Amino acid sequence: MEQSYYRIGEGMLSVRKDKKKRYWLLDISTTNPVTGKRKRIVRKNFFSKSEAERKEQELRIVLLNQKMPKEIYTVQLLFELLMTEDYKDKKISYLTSQKYNYYAHIEEYFRDSIVSKLDYQSINVFRENLLGKGLNNNTVNKIMVLLKKILDVAIRYQVLSDNPCRLMKKLPLKKIQMSYWTLEEYLAFERSILDHEKIFKVFFRLAFYTGMRKGEILALNWEDVDFKQNMIYVNKTVIKINGIEYLSETKTKAGMRRISINQKLASFLDKWRKRQLTKLQPYHPEISPESMRVFEVTPFHFLDSGNLRKKYEQLLKRNSQLDSIRIHDFRHSHVAMLINFGAEPYLIKERLGHESIQTTYDIYGHLYPSKQKTIADQIDLLTDD
């Protein structure tokens, strides 16, 4: 049976003010053509009529499966339909990033656009507009990927027959020069950390000797550290949303991993654990010590990325002989040390939680030539002239 179009203006009372005239609500009803049963959908507490009307259009498409005229499908509606799909299986950090990019860079530009008339040229003009704002190529590429996903929704609902973003090639990215410290440089840095700053020494020692991401380290509980087997279990991370930090799943499935640690690091962590528990356990009578966070500074207050960054900047100023590197470069420093020790790429992949060995090669392949030279020299020693 062919579905009828929903006409603008049909069911004018479906969007109206509530009884107290404070908020808008929508009240939709339809009849199943097969069973004859009536289905009713009510949503309340919209701040504006336009917001309620946009939600009505979305619900008629998603829940009632009604076919809508092409002019109904604005870029805003397509984005909301995309978010409805993504909420089923995407992480909150991903959704937050998508919403930021949309409302910061896409929403206003395409507010009055007619989706069915968008073509390659209009999309190219939009990208040039982004570049004209001084955004770097990587940021622009991410925004264009989001726009392509939005217009893919238009194809699924037969508003477009082809995606005008499809032929847009990604902008080239400048290869960032990787920075890292040697073991000697790291030890020189660590000597600048004072005893009352011990929590920062714990963080940076973990970062250098495990290669864990910053969020993964800050999320650690003591139950994640196995002192019997000298193992750290990485199973969560800290993410920041609207300035507030939350615990979340790891960045990828491969990020769920075990990392073996050396005995000296295990002993160092155990001393920190005992020192911390002595200070904080009285404030946690109802929970087990193992479930306490490793980086709890004071009762119920945890080390966050902002305070970590400020302290790191202070520590760098104490040693003018050291080149400045980012906190993320401690991860690179760990890999450089492993390669120097002769570690194979697959071991590095597993330790860092990369999804594929290709990722490991793409990021760290340039660090291997020196090892290849060493191997070549060893072959020379074993080979006749």
Molecular structure report:
About 45% of the residues lie in helices and about 10% in strands. It is of the alpha+beta class. It has helices at about 50-60, 75-85, 90-105, 120-130, 135-155, 185-190, 200-210, 215-220, 265-280, 305-315, 330-340, 345-350, 355-365, 370-380; strands at about 15, 25-30, 40-45, 225, 230-235, 235-240, 245-250, 255-260, 295-300, 300. Strand 4 and strand 5 (about 230-235) form a beta hairpin. It folds into three domains: about 1-70; about 70-175, Tyrosine recombinase, N-terminal domain (DNA polymerase, domain 1, Orthogonal Bundle); about 185-375, Orthogonal Bundle (hpI Integrase, Chain A). Strands 1-2-3 form a three-stranded antiparallel sheet, covered by helices on one side. A three-stranded antiparallel sheet has the order 4-5-8, with no helix packed on it.
What is the number of domains?
3
Biggest sheet: strands, sense, closure? 3 strands, antiparallel
What are the secondary-structure elements, in order, as H or E? EEEHHHHHHHHEEEEEHEEHHHHH
Under the CATH scheme, which class of the largest domain?
Mainly Alpha
Overall helicity = 40-55%
Strand content: 5-15%
